[in-house]
Design goal:
The complex is a heterodimer of chains A (78) and B (251).
Chain A lengths: L1 H16 L1 H23 L1 H4 L3 H27 L2
Helix pairs in contact in A: 1-4, 2-4
Chain B lengths: L1 H7 L29 H19 L10 H21 L7 H18 L11 H23 L17 H40 L6 H38 L4
The chains are: A mainly alpha (78), B mainly alpha (251).
């Protein structure tokens, strides 16, 4: 019985960890949106900055990935 | 726990995570370090495909390149320019390493998209080896090139003095989190995408929503082709960013 409650808590926690994905989505959307608004103002400078944009996306995404990691740990390790 | 979910079935015809099970190629269940498994097979295929593209494709050295040679030259030029842009001229010494990582990941990702194939990069064990290798390599290289000066990476001299200890703590934490986020980004993206395709594939067995589900599979598959390339690119570009820290640790 006790094990069931622990398992239930782990599953609920894994589900809650998915909220973190929303944060990553906001972050990545923010990065790309600001890149585009800058790129349309000065299209000639945009091509040189795509690598910077991808680095920004990767950093914003990393924190969303930690929520995924927490969900995985709760599902398979706890 | 995965076993339980599997036996219950959860209403799906098959479990979406079944595609990531490592199986021995020639029967039996025991997996030792020397057992040839489906991971071995698809990694080998990725290496063969890279060999076919980069070595056999460019072996003619034609002045006017054919299709294969054009693709090989494009891949080479693309990564070469990226390393040069981010690390500078002195970073070009490490170009072969970045190129190797990029080609292996891109081919493992694309081969994994073939229906029925096994995506080797969806396993954290595979990506963690690559990420930890990059992390250790960059750390050792940083200390070899700069000596103790490499530690100035953590001491942000542009910030006001009272803030610097706090920033140093944050910098140290973010430095050690690098291999974790570096490896899980790739593995998580590949695993999530393939699992979503399999979930929709299981829904296709229900007649009323089958057309919708097949359309969704097509759309997500197209997205996955894009993600496969972008994740390999991001892995390579982050390797370059970390290398740049080892070459020029001063902010």
């Amino acid at each position: 019985m006790e094990g069931d409650i622990v398992q239930m808590g782990a599953y609920i926690g894994a589900g809650l960890a998915c909220i973190g994905m929303g944060g990553a989505a906001l972050g990545v959307g923010n990065v790309v949106g600001n890149f585009l608004s800058g790129a349309f103002r000065n299209p000639s400078a945009a091509a040189g900055q795509t690598a910077t944009m991808f680095i920004g996306i990767a950093f914003a995404e990393a924190l969303g990935i930690f929520s995924f990691l927490v969900a995985l740990l709760l599902m398979f390790a706890v | 726990m995965a076993e339980e979910a599997h036996s219950e079935g959860g209403g799906l015809v098959f479990h979406p995570m079944d595609q990531f099970i490592v199986k021995p190629l020639f029967g039996g269940d025991a997996i030792h370090w020397y057992t040839p498994t489906n991971v071995t097979l698809w990694m080998g295929l990725a290496v063969l495909a890279i060999f076919a593209l980069l070595v056999l494709g460019t072996s003619k050295r034609a002045i006017i390149p054919g299709r294969t040679q054009s693709v090989a030259e494009m891949a080479y030029g693309f990564i070469h320019k990226m390393v040069e842009d981010i690390c500078g001229k002195e970073g070009l010494k490490y170009f072969p390493y970045v190129m190797t990582l990029f080609m292996f990941i891109v081919f493992a990702n694309f081969l994994g998209l073939i229906p029925g194939a096994f995506t080797t990069t969806s396993h954290i064990a595979v990506t963690a080896v690559m990420a930890v290798a990059v992390f250790l390599g960059v750390t050792i290289l940083g200390f070899m090139l700069n000596g103790a000066g490499f530690l100035s990476l953590f001491w942000v001299s542009a910030a006001p003095l009272p803030l610097r200890p706090i920033l140093a703590l944050i910098e140290v934490i973010s430095y050690f989190v690098r291999p974790v986020s570096h490896s899980i980004r790739l593995a998580g993206n590949m695993m999530a995408g393939h699992a979503v395709i399999k979930v929709f594939a299981a829904f296709a067995a229900i007649a009323t929503i089958a057309p919708l589900s097949i359309m969704a599979i097509t759309a997500i598959y197209a997205l996955e082709v894009l993600v496969s390339f972008i994740q390999a690119y991001v892995f390579a570009i982050l390797t370059c960013v970390y290398l740049k820290d080892a070459l020029h640790p001063h902010h």
